[in-house]
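Pilot study result, target chain (439 residues):
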Amino acid sequence: MYIKRDLYLEKLKNSINNGMIKIITGPRRCGKSFLLFHIFKDYLISSGVKEDHIIELSLDNASNAKYRNPIDLSSYFKDSVKDDFQYYFLIDEIQFCKSIDNPAFSGYKTDDNNMPKITFYDVLNGFLNLNNVEVFVTGSNSHMLSSDIATEFRGRGWQIRIHPLTFKEFKEANIQKETDNFSLWKQYYLYGGLPQISLLPDEPSKREYLRQVFENTYINDIIERYSLRNNFAIRDLVKVMATNVGSIINPNKIANTFKSEMKSTIQPATISKYIEHLEDSFLLNSACKYDLTGRKFIGTSYKYYFEDMGLRYAASAFVGKDQEPHFMENIIYNELIYRGYNVSIGSITIFDHSKNKAIRLNIEVDFIAEKFDKIIYIQSALYIPDNEKMEQELRPLRKINNSFKKVIITKYEGNGSYDEYGIIHMNLFDFLLDENSLD
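Predicted structure:
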């Protein structure tokens, strides 16, 4: 299965000769290695780069374990440069390279914890001194945070963030199965877009694969990285998040839920910290609420969306299949992020006079999508059975008093036409299958 990931290939091509280390980050099992060692390498060869000038190494491969020592890793790549032509260093799972004591300080008396270290950051920064070398690495989960990249690469790290398959890519991966959009949609919102999913033959094997990835990769990674003592709490928390997709998450309310339903005492501050860990591991993404009336962010109100719907399904212990409206909202959010938008949640204050008195209400706009000077307001509705539901969905968009684009996305209706209020009614599949649908 060869899935063209043209957006990411273009980003890699455009980063060549920018004078930085290129770091491909994203969730485990989302296709980073395939992008680097197949799609990008094929591009380099087709562009005339000699294969012996492409030096590649997978550090998660046990046969390459010796190169997890940063000194050996540096020597391996530097010794591969034989002439003045351009070389490309491709390193997969760079976080497997361990920190070691700097041997230059071996004669000094110092506490082991204070001994200067050599890390993979030192190795990669050292490669920047080679004039004829371009360096591309992949890194997974919480070992390669954006904050780490900014600090450790001293402003010379170029992050390229990749995601699981979009619905369009998922459809391309399943093109041989001749399945209609609706059948593919159900597979996608349950089992997600990790590329391996499209190769598995049935639902039991898909569930088992997702369970193993979720438990053995994500949860264990978080527990190990942050030395968590309460392993059950992080599992219970992510299950709560998985069954409340698209809801405002309040750590105080979650703490009360733990106390009343799980007979467990966990402080709101701890819950907030655990949620940060889930975000850092590329399992969750957050969207802050923006007050469109007061024109300010509401810093304590966040919604959380899963990076991959299959991992959400595994996190929920494979329950909650009947939440399709929330799954659709999550997938629209992911699609907007994939297309490069910054996404927040809108809140508008209105006064309802229908009961002979003014009642103050806060109504919600599902998404505010911003990119450069473009702003788009979006409502997500699985279906609209009657005029009352239509009014409920359209009212927030009609209350926004500006000329930016306003869109309602539905699964069954919508053909891209404008209504009398200037709101675009768009079909879900038209939105997902056309990356220019919002232009």
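One observation from the pilot: The mean pLDDT is 92. A full batch analysis is planned for the follow-on phase.
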